[in-house]
Amino acid sequence: MIRRNFRLFQDFSMAEEYGKNALLSYNKYLKVPELIRLQETLSDPASHDELLFIIIHQTYELWFKQILHEIDATLEWINEGRLFRANHSLRGVVSIEKILVMQIHLLESMAPIGFLEFRDKLNPASGFQSMQFRELEFVSGAKDEKILNTFKDDEFAFSRLTERFNSPSLGDAFWAFTGRNGLSVDTHEERVSATVEILTHPEKYAEIYNMQDLLIEHDELIISWRYNHILMVERMLGMKRGTGGSEGVGYLMTTLTKKFYPELWEARTHLKTGN
């Protein structure tokens, strides 16, 4: 009994220590009060499912921020020739992307009619306008000037995206490092041949092999995310047009052909045993 009362006293003391007058607490460090006030619904009366919709998309943006943080670190490590550290950061990227794919299914828990209760309030906003997702595409190697120019009216987003557009991508850094290690990588065909060489002799090119494997997994997971997103949209909306004016599912289907590292994929076609 004495021990239990002492434990309660300790808990109370800790609560006082990390309370409103403390220098630091969990809530202060993570800014929880500010965080939970950021979900502002537009529907009136408020649709039950709108809160979930907002939280999922805000969470996506936080994960995108972490992915970009890891990719920026990866670029630095590659440039310094420290592929072990670069691969460590890339593993963080693909681990997060697996979560992104799974999060799509949380949106599928919304009732289609519940989504329609607030969807029209979102016009003309659209997921197409996600600045950080476009940063992810650009830094991965899929740079599109038309997409960049759609952000011209958003000074903050346009500035960030322009910097990404004009900076070396993950693919640029990977091929430059591969070239510094004795393989010809100036043309598409040379990059395919270099990848075949790496795949054929994984022990000789161990860290480069691991990196190309992580890059193609990164590519594959983004494609998987796009595909699951399409299925979710069709499940919720059928073939309705997108809130931003796009063709909805029809437009999204065209994005499935995007690959960040086509040479890595093509090399698998040319791989043979006994090389």
Give the topology, please.
Blueprint: H1 2-17, H2 26-30, H3 32-35, H4 50-79, H5 83-107, H6 112-119, H7 131-140, H8 145-149, H9 155-166, H10 170-180, H11 188-200, H12 206-237, H13 249-254, H14 262-270
Helix pairs in contact: 4-5, 4-7, 4-10, 5-12, 7-9, 11-14
What does this structure look like?
This protein is mostly helical and 275 residues long. It has a domain at 48-117 and 135-141 and 169-270: Methane Monooxygenase Hydroxylase, Chain G, domain 1, CATH 1.20.58.480. It contains 14 helices and no strands. The longest helix has 32 residues, at 206-237. The chain is globular. The mean pLDDT is 88.
The profile of the biggest β sheet is:
none
* Contiguous uncertain segments of 5+ residues: none
Work out the number of β strands: 0
Structural class: mainly alpha
CATH class bucket of one domain:
Mainly Alpha
**DSSP strand content:** under 5%
Q: Rounded to an integer, what's the Rg over CA atoms?
A: 23 Å
CATH topology of one domain, by name, is Methane Monooxygenase Hydroxylase, Chain G, domain 1
Average pLDDT rating: 88
Order of helices and strands: HHHHHHHHHHHHHH
CA-CA gap between termini: 75 Å
Task: Give the CA-based shape.
Answer: globular
**DSSP helical segment count:** 14
Helix content: 55-70%
- Going by CATH, the architecture of one domain would be Up-down Bundle
